[in-house]
Amino acid sequence: MVLTDEERKAKKKASQKRYRQSEKGKVNSKKYSQREDVKENARNYQASEKGKTTRKRYTQSEKGKAKMKKYGQKPESKAKKEKYRQANFEKIKKRQKAYDSSDIGKANAKRYGQSEKGKATLKRYKESEKGKASQKKFNEGEKGHKGRRLKVLKHYSKVLSNSNIPCCNCCGENFHIDFLAIDHIAGRNEMDFEPELIKLDYSRKLGSGTLTKWILDNNFPPFFQILCFNCNQGKFTSKNNTCPHERK
Q1: Residue 2 phi/psi, 5° resolution?
Q2: Which residues, including other chains, have CB under 8 Å from residue 170's CB and lie 6 or more apart?
Q3: Structural domain containing residue 174
Q4: Structure confidence by residue, pLDDT tens digits, 106-162
Q5: Residue 150: inside a domain
Q6: Complete DSSP assignment for 24-61
Q7: What is the Cα–Cα distance from 59 to 68, expressed in whole angstroms?
Q8: Which residue in 32, 43, 166, 247 is deepest, having the highest Cβ count within 10 Å?
Q9: 244 part of a folded domain
Q10: Are 182 and 224 contacting, i.e. CB atoms less than 8 angstroms apart?
Q11: How far apart are CA 72 and CA 208, in angstroms?
């Protein structure tokens, strides 16, 4: 019986598959893959454009996705991944930071955040105990809103009131920082026309969180002061932009 080319290829492929799955085939395959010249050839191929294209095409295929998912769920795979992560933590962190700050990293993060999957993942994380604890820690930390706000309160209190404790520049209130507010000395609307602030892209539409960040980014411009909410509100409702304490 004469076999066609297709039949011969199929028969050869089946024979090779049986060999690779046999004990002898597995031993020889492992021995072969551990040779230095084979490893070097594999590294060179993976670094080549052809290798990258082939790997990308495979990982994006249904077969590749299924195989990678199945491999990632294996206990030995998880243990191997965790061991590598612990041994190369700083290296991975540095590489991830470089990727996140790159244009492609930012674009991918933005695209994922706007996707349904990304929104659902973020929502689940925010509602989890870990997410709530992390958000609280961030808000109260140096880089969070509360940390940034405290920096601003301390700076202007020190400069204008000569106080190491955040306080009102009018009545001296310093019981708690929650009683204090960042005040626009010339008035919120009037400051939109200050030439120096125009150069710094100031806007009266800046909210409390974005305003504190803007002040820090612009090295504490001398157009703000710290007032308690009473003095701040009294100044806001007056016709001449002064606190009732000053009008006595």
Answers
A1: -90, 125
A2: 227, 228, 231, 243, 245, 246
A3: 145-237
A4: 888 888 888 998 889 888 888 888 888 877 776 666 667 788 889 999 999 999 999
A5: yes
A6: HHHHHHHHHHTSHHHHHHHHHHHHSHHHHHHHHHHHHS
A7: 8
A8: 166
A9: no
A10: yes
A11: 44
